[in-house]
Write a structure and sequence with these properties.
Radius of gyration: 23 Å
Strand content: 25-35%
Structural class: alpha+beta
Number of helices: 13
Largest sheet: 5 strands, mixed
Shape: globular
Number of domains: 3
Distance between the termini: 43 Å
Amino acid sequence: MAEPVNLACMLARTILAPPKAIDFDAIRDELGIPDGYPAAAVAQAQEAAAEPPPLADPLDVPFVTLDPPGSRDLDQAVHLSRRGTGFLVRYAIADVAGFVEPQGPLAAETWRRGATLYSPDRSTPLHPTELSEGAASLLPGAHRPAVVWTIELDSAGEPTAADVRRSAVRSVAQLDYPSTQVDADAGRLHPSIELLPQIGALRRLLGRARGAINLDIPDTEVVRGPDGRWTLVRRAVLPIEQHNAEISLLTGICAARIMLDGGVGLLRTLPPPTPEQVELLRRATAVLGIAWPPSMPVAEVIAGLDGDRPRDAAFLEDAVRLLRGAGYTAFDGAPPAQAEHGGVGGPYAHVTAPLRRLADRYATEVCLALHAGRPVPDWARTALPDLPATMTAADRKAADLNRACAGAVSAFVLHGREGEQFAATVLQLEPQKNRAIVLLREPPVRAHCPPDGLTEGSVITVQLVSADPAAHRFVVKPV
């Protein structure tokens, strides 16, 4: 059973300045992120919202959604139940293809964007909000078109059968992670997801057995409080989030199997760790004093670590390298030579976030056709080879945006504190770049500093040399 949430791990520092002091618009402009949506594409979205696709036979199941607080672009709704000695997972995914014609200004703009991008002050949606936060979103209270995955699990959590088809669904509740975690700790989860901790834990155990790598590293987020002030938050991943992610992973695994068996599709791929990568990590554990028995797989070592402990955090920072290089692989005919995702421990596909990710709309359509024994629609099949490059560009832009926004807020929160000293953890040494990556304890800011004399996992003191909010830069040095 998951441990209760430790609220002490939620660290925050408020920036005592109005939000306008940080110009996120300028950051987006610099990265070429569009402001607003083209009128022709919006008009097409409005037409689709006014005349949604005909609803398939409604599924009388009390689905619920589970997302970050305040979310409106709701891709997924879930319902979990027992089936004999096992379980039945129903996962409804927004049927975006029913709203977006394969050709036209709306489809063209989604290809230009590739994915929804998130800034601290707003999102830049893949689809106009008339769809992403309106007619296509699985908001509670109304029947919506959806693609429903029905997956049977045995008592250990292994899938024994999977079905996917279009249906009309109705969400009965919009849940968020923090409140749902409180409910889970109190033993009062919504009936539709009462089994989520149990199924999630089983799936996580199976993932470890496959060699799946779960890096649940606490993240530094930029958020704005009710008073409009910007805040840096060091936030651990909640257990309920981990369990919910397992449902999405399960669905992606089933989707990949359908496409591989059908000989056409789009996979999310990552080569498994090489022996050389694992050996480098093993050396890191020796330096950090972390036990790694010779016969223990790397996934088992990682599963036993706590990202809030300095030595563990340093090791997890090194382990991130194992998950770099993920991409998309399209195939039509023979399966790709490298069809696995090393982080998942097997073949995997993205099919659960079509409101926010372009690839999911196409991979979902492939799965629907293959499972029903129909030809894959030409508009989906012919687009597959072009999707990897489009999605890679979108992933890169999202990473650039996250990095720039975090840098801007970090420089702003440190400005005016030049000369002050801060406790910090050495996360990683990068000798090839002659620098170390450190994480300040409070405010939770990542920084680079000279590496001389430092060791990974150690707790040191650094001094702020300078902070330039306009340039989004700051400099620290060990003392």
